[in-house]
Amino acid sequence: GPLFSGVISGETEVRPFAIDTVHALTRLASSTHEDDFEVYENENLDDSIRELSDGPHSLQYRAVDNVENVEPTHTVRFKMDTQPPRVEYQISGDSFKSGRKHFIGNHAVLHAQSVDSVSGVAHLKLKKNKEEFRNFTNDMSLENETTDFQIAFQSEDHVGNSVTTETQLIQIDRTAPLTQIKVDGTKAQIGDT
To answer: Which residues make Cβ contacts (< 8 Å) with residue 35, sequence separation at least 6?
Structure first.
C-alpha cells in the first residue's frame, strides 16, 4: 500500500533492514509501543502494522550486532488510515426519494462529495448505467435526461482505501398530474326556483 504525507494503510508493507560491515548483524528490533521491542529477523512488520487502530502512531527501531553494539533508537511517526472515504450525495430541485429510487422532474441537480479526514480524497467518480466510472467534479444538472438511469459513486483516498456506493435508480417523471372534479347531486337549471 502507498505512503502519503506520513499516512499509511493497513496494506502498506513495512520491512526493516540493517547493515553492519564489521560484525554480522544478529537482530533488528522494532516497536509500535514505548520500550516494547520485538526482534525481527528478515521479516516484515505487516501483521503488527495491520493490528494498529486508525490515527497517529510511531514506530521505533534499532539494530544490535554480534558483539552487542546497539544502534541508537530511531522513531518514525505516521498515521494509520484503514477506512475508505465517505460518499454523500443528494438530488436537489424537483425530486422525491423512495427507498433506493429517486424520481426527478424538470429542475433536478445531482450534488456529491467525498470526505476522508485522514489521508484525503484522491478521487470521486460517477458511473451512469453500464458506462465506466468517470471523474465527478461538479454538480450535474439532470434536466436533459430523457430516460430512467442508474448511478453509483466510487471514491478512493490517497492510501488506496476505496468504496463503491449501492446503485440507485433515477426515474424521470415529467408528466403533470391530471386533476378532475366530480360533482354529485341534483342538476339545477337557470330559472328553476
So the answer is: none
Q: 190: which residues sit within 8 A by CB, 6+ positions away?
A: none
Q: What number of other Cβ atoms are within 10 A of residue 175's Cβ?
A: 7
Cell numbers that stand for 71 in this block: 544502534
Beta bridge partners, 58, equal 77
Candidates 108, 140, 109; CA nearest to 127 is 140
- The 3-state DSSP class for residue 131 equals coil
- 46 or 64, higher pLDDT: 64
DSSP state of 47: H
pLDDT at 114 over 70: yes
Provide, rounded to the nearest whole percent, the portion of the chain with pLDDT above 70.
78
Rounded Cα gap, residues 42 and 125, in angstroms? 40
User: Is the predicted pLDDT of residue 3 greater than 60, yes or no?
Assistant: yes
DSSP string, 74-85: EEEEEEE--SPP
Judge contact between 108 and 143, C-beta under 8 A. Answer: yes
Beta carbons within 8 Å of 102's beta carbon, 6+ residues apart: 91, 95, 96, 168, 169, 170, 171
Residue 138 C-beta-side C-alpha neighbours within 13 Å: 3
Instruction: For cell 429510487, name the residue.
Output: 101
